[in-house]
Amino acid sequence: MTPATLTDDPRFTGLLEAARALQPRTVALRRQLHKHPEVGLDLPLTQAAVLHALDGLGLHVSTGTTCSSVIAVLNGDRPGPTVLLRGDMDALPLREDSGLAFASETEGTMHACGHDTHTAMLVSAARLLNSRRDALTGKVVFMFQPGEEGQHGARFMLEEGVLEAAGRPVEQAFALHITSTAPSGVVMCRPGPMMASADAYTVTVTGKGGHGAMPDRAVDPVPAAAAMVGALQTMVTRRFSVFDPAVLTVGRITAGTTSNIIPETAELEGTMRTLSDRTRAMVQAEIPKVCEHIAAAHGCTSTFKINTGYPPTNNDGAVANRVLELAGAVLGQKNSALMPEPLMAAEDFSYVLQQVPGALAFLGACPPGVTPDEAAPNHSNRVHFDESAFAHGVALYAAFALDALR
Q1: How many CA atoms lie within 13 A of 53 on its CB side?
Q2: Using CA atoms, how far apart are residues 397 and 51, in angstroms rounded to an integer?
Q3: What are the residue ranges in the chain where pLDDT is below 70?
Q4: Strands laid side by side in the 358-364 sheet
Q5: The pTM is what?
Q6: Which of 22, 65, 352, 387 is the most exposed place for a label (fewest CB within 10 A)?
Q7: Percent helix, percent strand, percent coil in the chain, to nearest 5
Q8: What pLDDT, on a 0 to 100 scale, did the predictor assign at position 2?
Q9: pLDDT in tens, 35-63
Q10: Among the options 38, 264, 310, 351, which is catalytic?
């Protein structure tokens, strides 16, 4: 089915207009969540707000036992497959400086990555789809997820059975992520690698402490640590293909207490990002080798620890292309854009996409009056999102379900 045919499909008639009609509800819930952000896996206020917003829709609603998740299941008028739509709910430990009238009232906590918008859009999509049950052949699982910001919330929900919540396995999955650094209302997606894995590592270099005036009587770990920084960058450029890239950053170097003491230890801490499981495993194996040999060359020893993060986010090719077709048909071709390259940030929707064909797409929401290059980015304490883009997100969530359950 071509985009032109999709444009004429009666299932999508009036869909964007219906999403715009829900805009007051979407904005109101988003602002409520933005004023009362919560971090991590335990989000009692957010969970309560979502449950209240879903009340009366006739959905089968359940909550998590290991985290403050919400799962809502919508039954279409006829039996059929199951699709999943996700919205994450957690905020960041950040002091807000946005100047918004509905800024965070919780000191040191802010919705700086737009998860408040995802939740509000998904609730409105549930409301919209509920009004069109007669067009659905199958079921929709609405996945309201805590703990995306590093707490593996999706993994907890998978372990609790979110993919089986409708009584039959989920067959397709879709999630949106808002961004302030793209034109408002534009949906961006791509087949294959969409976002990177994210692992943190620590290397401890151990030598022998001593007086700074007599380095020959000590074994200084600082030069060894410094040499490791350059060696690790060379490792990336010489051992990994540019077509399956790795990004390796040393973000922290710590050693010593004062100017005239050679410390016993030095420590490096950083992040590694890859787009494939193969390269991820290679990077994890190569870092300790490089550091061990650099340390030995300086008469030191080294230890390596890794804090395993999220796997790469890989979009199913057919689903990603269909998302772009749907965006073009429902939102207009100017609002559908093939994302030219992956983003090296990470997302725990990757856990869902490891088990179910699906896609994650970005929704642009650059605020009025600035260009995407000028806008404060996600994770900035000054970030703004153009609320008029929300209707596009609601409509696309609904379109995805209507298309999959035709």
Answers
A1: 30
A2: 19
A3: 1-5
A4: 60-63, 70-75, 137-145, 78-88, 172-179, 358-364, 187-189, 336-338
A5: 0.94
A6: 65
A7: 35, 25, 40
A8: 46
A9: 999 999 999 999 999 999 999 999 999 99
A10: 310
